[in-house]
Design a protein that fits this description.
With 275 residues, the protein is an alpha/beta fold. It has one domain (2-274). The chain is 32% helix and 13% strand. It is built from 10 helices and 9 strands. It has helices spanning 2-7, 56-59, 73-84, 107-113, 132-135, 170-177, 199-202, 207-217, 224-238, 258-274, and strands at 11-16, 31-35, 65-67, 92-97, 120-121, 140-142, 148-151, 186-188, 195-198. A 6-stranded mixed beta sheet has the order 3-2-1-4-9-5. Strand 2, helix 2 (56-59) and strand 3 (65-67) form a beta-alpha-beta unit. Helix 3 packs antiparallel against helix 8 (207-217). The chain is globular, with a radius of gyration of 19 Å.
Length: 275
């Protein structure tokens, strides 16, 4: 049984937002590709230019492509796959963005780790890789194992195009979903949220946990909470933390999140001050 699992090919779950998939032609792996641009994207405050329908099925007829959702960045598709297949997950899943090659890792590095049967953060510090020199500012450092570590100050929520509806910062989010989270000065995470994840790491949490995470990030095309969850996934899948009771029941419009709670308290104070 162990040998069979070792020889079994990892399953690929790919989120594609109007990106080239030619690089994936050489990979003979079971997969599903979520096309976030199948219907195109209208011009908006988030996207200055209209994006036409991708027509990925026509371009890549041999690939297993299905419709994705525009919201929640690539993590939304990861959660969609987990929720839809929770009781029948492959033994090991490679969760990646379609633009991972030469943005986050080189092709050679990618090939060297995608058959791993253990939890793996797919990241590579290489100055020659497109875009990485722009990532590394004073808020990052690379640990001895090559891992990315980011200053825990939620800087990404300060941008106007990344609205945050439910949470004002990373620590508030983590303390909301877990009972036993201890904050630290730096966060260990994988830029882009590309991982090899064994099934056992996913099944540490109940199905409702993932449904609630999707509720938190899927309200906007570019939700700030998606960036929070990008930084939380390493801890979620690598560590063993006690899940908060609130994550064990479905979220809805009546769920009180920290940001909403702060607004309610502020409104109550205003009302009291007028009495």
């Amino acid at each position: 049984m162990v040998n069979k699992m070792q020889n079994e090919k990892n399953f690929f779950c790919i989120s594609c937002f109007n990106e080239d998939l030619n690089w994936f032609r050489e990979f003979d792996y079971p997969h599903i590709i979520y096309d976030k641009c199948f219907a195109g994207v209208k011009k908006s405050k988030y996207y200055p230019h209209e994006i036409p329908p991708s027509k990925l099925r026509e371009k890549y007829p041999k690939m297993n492509i299905t419709n994705g959702q525009i919201g929640g960045y690539n993590i939304n598709e990861y959660l969609t796959y987990i929720i839809s297949n929770y009781y029948n997950l492959p033994n090991n899943i490679v969760f990646i963005k379609a633009n991972i090659i030469n943005r986050h890792v080189s092709l050679n590095f990618f090939k060297s780790i995608i058959d791993n049967k253990f939890f793996t953060s797919i990241e590579e510090w290489n100055p020659s890789i497109l875009g990485q020199t722009n990532f590394l500012k004073k808020i990052y450092f690379i640990s001895n194992d090559g891992g990315w570590n980011e200053l825990n100050n939620s800087w990404y929520l300060n941008k106007r195009k990344h609205p945050n509806k439910f949470f004002n910062n990373f620590n508030t989010f983590m303390n909301f979903i877990f009972k036993s989270y201890r904050s630290s000065k730096y966060i260990r995470f994988c830029p882009g949220a590309n991982y090899v994840v064994p099934k056992k790491n996913i099944l540490k949490y109940e199905l409702i946990f993932y449904k609630n995470l999707k509720y938190i990030i899927n309200y906007s095309q570019l939700s700030g909470e998606s960036h929070i969850l990008e930084r939380a996934l390493y801890t979620i899948w690598d560590k063993d933390l006690l899940v908060a009771d609130i994550m064990k029941k479905p979220f809805n419009e009546f769920t009180v999140f920290p940001k909403k709670e702060n607004v309610l308290k502020a409104n109550i104070r205003k009302l009291i001050s007028r009495i």
